[in-house]
Design goal:
Elements: H1 6-24, E1 29-30, E2 33-34, H2 35-52, H3 54-69, H4 72-104, E3 108-109, E4 112-113, H5 124-128, H6 130-134, H7 139-149, H8 154-159, H9 163-177, H10 182-207, H11 210-225, H12 231-260, H13 264-270, H14 272-281, H15 284-298, H16 303-316, H17 319-336, H18 342-358, H19 366-376, H20 391-416
Antiparallel strand pairs: 1-2, 3-4
Helix pairs in contact: 1-11, 1-14, 2-11, 3-9, 3-10, 3-16, 4-12, 4-16, 4-17, 4-18, 4-20, 7-18, 12-17, 12-20, 14-15, 14-20, 15-16, 15-20, 16-20, 17-18, 17-19, 17-20, 18-19
Length: 429
Amino acid sequence: MGKLQLHWQILIAIVAALVLGSITGTDMALFGISFYGIYDFLGTLFLNALRMIIVPLIMSSIIVSIAKLGSGSDLGRLGGKTVLYYATTSTLAILVGLFFVNLMSPGILNGEPAGDALNLTVDSGELASAVAAVEGRGGSDIVNIFLRMVPTNIVNAAAQGEMLGLIFFSLVFGFFMSRIPEGPRETMLSFWTGVFETMMKITMWIMSFAPIGVFGLVAETVASTGFGAFEPLLKFFITVVAALSFHVFVTLPLMLKYLAKVNPFLHFQAMAPAILTAFSSASSSATLPLTIRCTKENAGVSDRVTSFCLPLGATINMDGTALYECVAAIFIAQAYGLDMTFGTQFTVVLIALLTSIGVAGIPAASLVAIAVILTAIGLPIEAIGLLLVTDRVLDMFRTSINIFSDSCGAVVIGKSEKETGILQAPAPA
């Protein structure tokens, strides 16, 4: 195993986990020790190790990147390109999800709402007022996003995983660090560069145990949920996977081909380790260190662009999550029999875009955002319980799309900055 590339080790671990997880289930034990408990221990330990390094890695990478940008015009140009790319891809992802959920109608079973089959009930008065409830929604969500960007206590924000606040503080810190006199500026830059390099070393050490952690995470999921689902949930699952597949195999490659002028297949190959890790961990934040490494070493994007774009993207660029939120909300509305007008669906698109910005890069975090959308269209949030059957597996898919879109953004922005050497040669096998 040690002679194989990391992503091949991870792929073997996933296959082994699928087999053993389905065989052992949640009850099988050996000498009184539950297999499920072993899976849970291995997966949790691996995720904890990755989460341990997220705060110092993000802070150091952004601070060093901003401090090295130089003039404010450079910062404004790079930041503007990054935000524009992320807003564009997230919006495209949501529109793709909207198209597929209307095309396949997973919430409709044999021409009727699937609510009865799924044991869903809602008062008819609530349905009548659902569309009206949409009016006026969304403004408070925008305000809350900006409020979360400026935390009252940065230490508490870091401890609570409020990454928007942490990133904003790091951006401000790095910007003004570049404005102090040369002597202390160089001292501070040397310190934060040392922190960043140290965190990358720790990251690579932790990632050497990735196949073991991945095995535990996937085996635990298969053991607890299996592969079966109700017919509407299976249709919902297929709808989400189809929409995500279209986005990752059509939308993003087209952007790579026509905006960055690079071969999309080479980029898929370069990002394979990060994609597989994201799929297994369902955490874009936990995968961030490997995403940075693959984008720099395999795709050839500069440290200047990767250390700025990728940590920012791990928080605000959630293509897969935004797409999933849209499909999930409309699926539940269909199951309840709610007639989704164009105005209502546009509101779902808008709120999905806004809430995806603040979703934490951890497993199942999008369920909170879906609750916001359901409230906006007047449906009970208890319906989220339906999504738990397939959520973990779909979380794996959408997280993979999240980090791949981040890396595509780094390539597109790197090319726009006239960088050379990006995906000019075949990536390592």
